Amino acid sequence: MDFKKIVRADLVDVNVKVDNEAELFNYVAKKLLEKKLVKPGYAAALQKREKEFPTGLKTKNFNIAIPHAEPENVTAPFIYIIRLSKSIIVRQMADKEKIQVKDVFILGIKDGQKQVDVLSALMNLFVNDQFIEKFLVAKNAQEIYACVVNNLKDGELLNNQFK
Prior knowledge:
This protein has 163 residues and is α/β, with parallel strands linked by helices.
């Protein structure tokens, strides 16, 4: 599978205006459904999964959310990167405490057994100081896309994890 098909320039949005997680999930589901990457009901699947297993992550440099639904809701693998116009509250994965996030990576994973490996690869990216420095100052979708693609250490490994 081609890495550029998973992290794609057309799956990066900036200045997305939502007031909460539910609005974010509705926005995401609509966009991904239009691209035929998810099945109907994806927003509800995201909400359900996030309620049971929150995906907010607090790193030393920034907070991020990594929501994903169960694999049966995904028709093709993807990573959808979103920078919100303002922060929203999500729950942290470790302790379910509320945190504010402005950056979101929505994962579309078809093989649920690979989920941990994909999350691990992203965690490595999120603690990479070079990546963070460039990612936080990226102003538009093209800069964010380039930053992510150029800083993933092992794209082929990540590729294989999505199959």
